[in-house]
Structure formats: structure tokens, C-alpha cells
Write a structure and sequence with these properties.
This protein is α/β, with parallel strands linked by helices. The chain contains eleven helices and nine strands.
């Protein structure tokens, strides 16, 4: 059956497969973990704070065994998948739109001796290439914002989860009381029309038969992460120009500053959302 992908997903695939983005995200954003970090303080290394995101979400999961199957949608370089596979001894399926990231994910899995536990699939979360009722946990870190059809993503999450399955994720969002129009510079930068919110996810998931286990507002970490990435980019600018264009890096700095400004003004939100599909 032919599948349809939103324009936002197509643009995200082209972006993350580009040499500029691949170099920047792996070098500066967090290495194997390219999502927002959970920092102890303003000076902590990005890679350590980003890995703490993996540790925190994994610690919140319920009833995990070696027989569990976890699906990571928007898995990037696979840092979270390796952490989960090692922590629980379970199977992990990675679904990600960047084949460049997928190839490094496979190489790192093999190096860690985990290629028998982790399967890496090229695909997107609007059309998850996994059978219905097949996984115990759907996991996602700062990826769903790249969809132009988030209700469809949530439909897909519900489809692939077993009854009583868990959905745990983070996503850069707007505040529920964000004024109209103020985020347009951020949206234009990342080629999106909207951001979600805590309220949107709660309503949409409840409509699909999920119940809330825990939601933790950690918006302060979003602000800190974008600021830290900006500082690292400035400190390593000359070295980064060997692999990424100056135009790309300059645009990235502008974009990071806009995220920090949006957080300072109370327009943005971020945190951990943990739900369970009712039996």
C-alpha cells in the first residue's frame, strides 16, 4: 500500500541527511544522543546531560523484562536504544528517517555487541513499518515535532502498541497559553506550521484510549540546552567549518538564540510525558 508522508517529514529527512546537519549534531548536540539534555548545572557537558535523558526515561518505565520490545521512533544515532537494550536486555526497534544516522546506528550497535538485540529500520513515524499490537513500549525523544500530522503519529503509536503498552516521550512544544504568532520565527527556521503542547498531547492521547502515568514539566532544561549548544557552537566554530558550511552554522546560531528567547518569554514548553494504553 502506498503511504503518504507530510511535507514536514520529507523536509526533515533531507535536513538530517545533509553533511552540515550530520556533522553538527554528532559533534556538538550530544553525540549518540541528539535530544535535549537534563543538566545538573550550566557547565555540564552536553553529552552527559543528553545521556541523562535516556537514563531518566528508562527509569520511569514499568514492568520491563528481557522479553519486552521497545520501539524508538525518531531514534537518531541510537544512543537511547543501546541504553535500553543494555539496561533491560530487551529487544529494541529503531525507526528513523535519516539513512546516514541509521548507518552509524548500526555500526555502533555492532561495536557494542548489540546488533542481535537492536533492529534499525528506515522509515517515519507517520507510517511506522511495524505490525499492529507488536511492541510493549513506544519511546521518542524530541522527534515528533518534525511531523506535519501529529494526530496521525499518535494513531500509529496506538496501532503498534500492545494492550497496556506504554508511551514515553519528550518533545519541544509551545506553552498552552502561548500568544498567537509569536513563535513564527522559530517555526520558519525549522519548516513547521505549529508546535504541540502539554494540553494537546494529553487531550489527543486520552481520546485514543491512553491514561496518564506521569508528566514532568522540565521547560527550564529546554532553555538551558539550547543555550549550552549555542555556547559550544561558538567555542568550536572554526573547527566545525571544516565539515559544515559557515552559512549553516550562522543560521543555527540564530535559531538557537530564538529558542532561548522563546523560553525566556514563557512561550515554550518541554518535559517527559508517560502514558499507558488502557486494556
Amino acid at each position: 500500500m502506498k503511504t503518504t508522508r507530510s511535507r514536514a517529514v520529507v523536509q526533515a529527512e533531507a535536513y538530517y541527511d545533509s553533511p552540515d546537519a550530520d556533522s553538527f549534531y554528532f559533534t556538538i548536540w550530544g553525540g549518540e544522543d541528539i535530544h535535549i539534555g537534563m543538566y545538573k548545572d550550566d557547565s555540564e557537558a552536553i553529552v552527559d546531560a543528553s545521556h541523562r535523558n535516556d537514563e531518566t526515561l528508562a527509569s520511569m518505565l514499568k514492568d520491563m523484562t528481557a522479553g519486552s520490545v521497545v520501539l524508538d521512533i525518531g531514534s537518531g544515532y541510537g544512543g537511547a536504544a543501546r541504553h535500553v537494550a543494555q539496561r533491560f536486555g530487551c529487544k529494541v526497534i529503531c525507526v528513523n528517517i535519516s539513512e546516514k544516522q541509521n548507518q552509524l546506528n548500526r555500526e555502533l550497535n555492532a561495536k557494542a555487541g548489540l546488533d542481535g538485540q537492536i533492529t534499525v529500520l528506515h522509515g517515519d513515524f507517520e507510517n511506522i513499518p511495524v505490525e499492529a499490537d507488536a511492541v510493549d513500549v513506544v519511546w521518542s525523544q524530541d522527534a515528533i515535532l518534525h511531523s506535519g500530522n501529529r494526530p496521525r503519529v499518535l494513531d500509529e503509536v496506538r496501532r503498534v502498541l500492545k494492550p497496556d503498552g506504554q508511551f514515553i516521550f519528550t518533545d519541544p512544544m509551545q506553552a498552552d497559553d502561548c500568544p498567537d504568532g509569536v513563535l513564527q520565527p522559530i517555526l520558519d527556521r525549522i519548516h513547521l506550521e505549529t508546535l504541540s503542547s502539554f494540553g494537546f498531547y494529553d487531550r489527543a492521547l486520552r481520546e485514543r484510549g491512553f491514561e496518564k502515568i506521569e508528566v514532568i514539566d522540565m521547560t527550564h532544561q529546554l532553555r538551558r540546552h539550547y543555550w549550552r549548544v549555542g555556547e559550544e557552537l561558538k567555542a568550536n566554530y572554526e573547527r566545525l567549518t571544516r565539515d559544515a558550511s559557515a552559512d549553516y552554522l550562522d543560521n543555527m546560531l540564530t535559531g538557537l538564540e530564538r529558542w532561548v528567547e522563546g523560553a525566556d518569554k514563557g512561550w515554550l514548553a518541554w518535559g517527559v510525558m508517560h502514558y499507558r494504553l488502557a486494556k
